[in-house]
Amino acid sequence: MPLFASVSLMRFFYSLCALLLLVPGVPQAWAQRITFSGQITEAASGKPVPFASVFVRGTSQGATADEAGRYQLTVAGPVDTLAASAIGFGTLKKRVSSPAERQVVNFALSSGSVFLGEVVVRPRENPAYRIMRRVQEQKPRNDKFRLKAFEFDSYSRTEVALNNLPDVVSRRKALRQLTQVADSLGIARDANGKAVVPIFASEVLSRFYQLNEPLRKREEIRRTQMRGATPREGSVVSQIMGSSFQDWDFYRNWQQLLGKDFVSPIADGWKFTYEYELQDSVLVGPDFCYQIGVTPRRAQDLAFTGTIWITTDTYALRKLELAVSPEANLNFVEQVRVRQEMAHSPAGQWLPRQTRVVIGIKPTKGSTGILARLTIINSGFQVNQPKPLPFYDRPLETALDAFEVPKGFFEQNRPDTLSQQERATLAVLDTVRQLPAVRSVLELADIAVNGYYRTGKLDLGPLLSTYSFNNIEGHRVRFGFRTTPEWSRDWLLRTYLAYGTRDGRFKYGLRVQRVLDRRHWTVANFEHRRDLDQVAFLDNDYALDNPLFEASARLGNISGSRPLLRDLTTLRLQSDLFRGFTQRVVLRHQQFRPLYPFAYYTGEAQPGAPTADQFDLSEVVLESRYARDEVLVQNNQNRRTAIGLKRWPVVTVRYTLGVDELLGADFRYHKLNLLIDQSIRMGQLGRLDYRLDAGYIPSTVPYPVLKTHLGNQSPFYNAGAFNLMRYFEFVSDRYVALRAENQFDGFLLNSLPAIKQLNWRLVATGNVLWGSVSQANRRIIPLEDPVNGGLLPSFQSLGRLPYAEVGYGVENIFKVARVDFLHRLTYRNSPGARTFGVKVSLQFKL
Question: For the chain, how many helices (H) and strands (E)?
């Protein structure tokens, strides 16, 4: 997955941009060596030749020009001749005899095409189509996935800068001074003369391994260095800079980019998405190639425009230079350009040797933008030498000393030569990070991303939970903290204390985590907390994925969701038995103290029999989770995050045993639960996400222990809830729920003349729930309050007819808004039921 597919990384830089107020640094002097610089242009037109090569013949010294044809090459030792070359041009040599330490040498390249023979154009047949059909036929022998295994050394460099700075921003004193430093160090301005201000750079050296059957990947991060506005060492963002998360593979039908699926120019359905033009036959290194231009049939489609080079003998993808059309249905994206060269492996298949990517992000037309440059250079290829299967169990292994980079290490171990622009970028970043003002900005950005304020060995927060209000607690104030890796890498402590002004109660929580074994991610947790909770949200934590929904559901008047005071003590142990298979054992004790009228029969369920209004539970929970090929990254808080899409179903099986009379527990019961979710690519139809949730409770217990299906009475759409169901409307002890959502991206709307300019995207949703409650679980709740009299709040279960709702909507309205129109198909006559609703949500999607 390419770098900026990571939403967390994008949020980090957008938060930084919102808070950025940098001050300048001091220029640094470079070592005194002979430095050549200049520009490479076309002799015929004078236009720049992007990504041309400049080198000293007979040596390994060389550099690659940028997209404007500018280069800088620093060499050690006497040099008498420089040479420049580019695809489609002849090699040009120039003598350099001056002993000056800095020299300007420009090159004007002449056409140097190599014609392989006559191309016959027949009626009704595009000559490029014949070549593309042969590409499809030869895919099996050229695709790297046909190898048993392969491995290589990888160097990855990422540079991020701010551009398009508005005048009101660029005139600020601190930023003006920083711009002066950038100018003095030779950082080129953009086409409009506005400054480009570096904010972040990283370099990673690693060894990458891939086994293809079964598919397994492993990357060993050996050295990594970050400069400028860097995320924390050990964070998820800091670990996804390597080769395994930047897999630009155009042999696949879709290239995932920025969280979207772009159709590859050599995809199986190439003819339905692209137009092709055979432009030339040229020499690319030692390989004769067809040069073919590609353009999308519809400008709004998620496809590329540019040029591909196909070898004439094996019909393999040798090289490509592609860009995303500015008219593509994407948000905030100003430009995307990819240049890749492939290397022929000893087994015949082709592997990526060099990849260069430029990504420009701009929230609005006149706002400050983000410009990211990515360089990946691979070498030391070995093929068909698979490692033992357990070798791949840890897909990402970061050396303990990976962040401890000796001075000058990357200068000695880079496989390419930095351009003047890149050297200047690192100089600015090394300087400004030392200034107090910059450190303050980074602290604020870190708070915006993580929600905590770091003070040495402690993180204070989460800050957003410091204050809230509801009708039970009144004004709620909370203070908490967690330890950092500076305190311990294998121990984590979290705690908080809260107080409500209306109920006068203190609430608190304590959690201790110990990492016992990182290889198999064996972790022990202890937690104890006493806090306000709600029956409507018990056992629904996975569905509270919309911050707006969660905030609105837990604030204000929460009586309808049946509040209770809950004491929870948990001891949990989990471990990965093998790749993708996680086993968890939980010992849990809970005390339920309802804050609303509640009672249940403690013995025989009949009027006048003994009742109680509170209860305790002791539970043993066994859970197994299997996620094939899932890549998990541990952050510096010992939490694991799944990177990438759920290409295979993720299956979770959970069994809960309630043990009576243990620590005063009142019930013995059993619970079974099955959860399956997956994300499926649908080609031109977008992406389908589904979740199957099934459960069975064959025991007699009060309804707070049963499954309360999550409703949604807020105005905000929640993909994990039944959006036209009321809070606590339905309860079940046996159920099957299926939720599905299809995001069509630009399907249909991209073809409508009056609509396609808006870049709206269709979505469709459907929720179906089958469920019921046994007679025993109905009878355990008395109809009347045995203490105060009057009817007790009861619950409702589904009948033979399933609950069903469907929806359709439009997302990407003003690039951030989504509107869903929902219809309730069943139980339309239930008291208070809404048969139609409109809900909104805000989302960050490219």
Answer: 11, 45
By the 8 A CB rule, do 271 and 129 touch? yes
Closest of 5, 8, 11 to residue 257, by C-alpha: 5
Cα 697-594-620 angle, rounded to 5 deg: 40
Nearest to 687 by CA among 740, 611, 736, 636: 740
* Range picked from 22-36, 161-175, 688-702 for highest mean pLDDT: 688-702
Largest CA distance in the chain: 109
User: pLDDT tens digit string along 348-405?
Assistant: 899 999 999 888 877 666 667 778 888 999 999 999 999 998 888 777 788 878 888 8
Handedness of CA 570, 575, 577, 582 (dihedral sign): positive
Gap between the Cα atoms of 380 and 154, Å rounded? 9
Contacts of 661 (CB under 8 A, 6+ apart): none
- Chain centroid to Cα 584, Å, comes to 26
At 782, phi and psi to the nearest 5?
-70, 155
Alpha-carbon distance values, 738 to 146, 692, 693 (Å): 37, 5, 6
Give the separation between CA 375 and CA 243, rounded to whole angstroms: 10
pLDDT in tens, 229-283: 655 544 444 444 444 456 788 998 888 776 677 889 999 888 888 999 999 888 8
**Bridge partner residues of 372 (DSSP):** 160, 359
- Exposure b/e, 297-322, CB count within 10 A at least 16 = b: eeebbbbbbbbbbbbbebbbbbbbbb
Question: With a threshold of 0.70, does the pTM exceed it?
Answer: no
Per-residue pLDDT band for 630 (boundaries 50, 70, 90) equals confident
* Start-to-end CA span in the chain (Å): 15
- Cα 658 from Cα 697, distance rounded (Å): 11
